[in-house]
Amino acid sequence: MKLRWVSSLAVMLPVLAGLGSLRAAVPGTSLAAAEAAPPNAGQLFVPKAGVMEFSGRLLVRPLPPTSGPGQDGRFAADDARARAIIAEHVLGYIAELDEYIVGIPAGMDENAFGAQLLASGLYDFVCPDWVLFVAGATATPDDPDFPLQWHLNKVDAPPAWSITTGGTGPIIAFVDTGVDLAHPDLATVAAGGYNCHWSSRRSQEAGGVVTDANGHGTAVAGAAAALGNNGIGGCGVAWNLRVMPIRATNPTSSVGSAISSDIQNGALWASSHGAKVVSVSFAGGALAYVQTLGATLRSRGCLLVWAMDGNGISYAEDHLSAIMVTGTTVSDTRDPGASFGPLVDIAAPSVGLWLPTVGGGYGWHTGPSFAAPQVAATAALIWGLAPGFTPAQVERVLYDGVDDLGPAGYDDTYGAGRLNVRWALWITVLRLYTMGVPAEGADPHGMGVDDLYGLAKTARDVDGDGIIDDRDTAWAYLMFRGDELKELSTQGP
Fold it and tell me: Are both 318 and 195 inside the same structural domain?
């Protein structure tokens, strides 16, 4: 079975008739519409957060004409009276339905004014002009091993996939031990690579060896970009990213070590051959050259993501130009082997991850090496939605979208917090929206009321102005309303 979508509608749509309404059965009485929420403490209309909420307006329809002897004159008088009662509050009229959009008088609410109108016996129905929400869709891949990949749900990847899975987004390079190019979950996503070992220094096209004889690089690349929804194995944080294998290890050996200068050479080659994100999962992240390398890559419009080592010690350094990633467990505690300290910028799962292995299979992997590619993949997804973002803007979205662990705000254990892919992509689209730039390739229906209420629960700077305030929530609602208008302009009656 291919992609399964678990979804409710996608944007806030006004109700045009009947839903959550009270319809007059005979003058002076009323019946609750089947769809309406049950009355609560005498209330006619009961809103439900995230499903149906008040808008400050009612929808009102006068009784339709009746037939029979002597009815015409009575109808005309009652009809005129019904329309006169609401005349000063009318905000709009839907002629095709003979339905009025009515404002709420001062000192009243939907329930009080609705009850007053219904008591007159002059109206066919009265209901709030409900604001209706729907939860964002969740994309579940058909890969049989996906249930084993707990880390993908931990970083909220499935809801993020309803926005984008990568498509033809930017290239992400892995400076590592190479990639198994024959692996069914990696073969079709590979871009031209390079062997940066000092004895080779040649591109894949020119005969450079980029295949993986060690296994580390295959797992790292798979954590980021194993092909999803193909009915094979598992999947990565992004399903359709283009992967550039940069092998830094000796092309004639299966050893898993590399020389610093070779790593730098590989990163520089990648950044000058189309990569927007370079991910490194070797030790040495605290070394001074990492800062210089990261700054150079940023000057080329590229981000450097580097894994913290597995020594379990604290580093006092702080590289401003590289994104340093530590690891976490299934319970959101620090991976005991992962290093920490001021050097850490962000965290991602790293213990017991089910990832690709050389030879076409999957196996269990542990270590911060496998946390970094998840962050790198998310950066690439952000850039796929917002190709105009600078490296600093992509980095900011990553940090603003995290789930904050440990002490509030930045700390030396988790940095900004643990990666959350859904929030990162949602904030990306919102910032594009506030800037007036469409998010190419984004599906706005992938964002829904769960996101809006998540924003209310944990305040985030969604508009990118550096301040968390009411404007952030306002921008979120405006984005949904803007999408609603687009829907209404493209759909027929």
Answer: yes
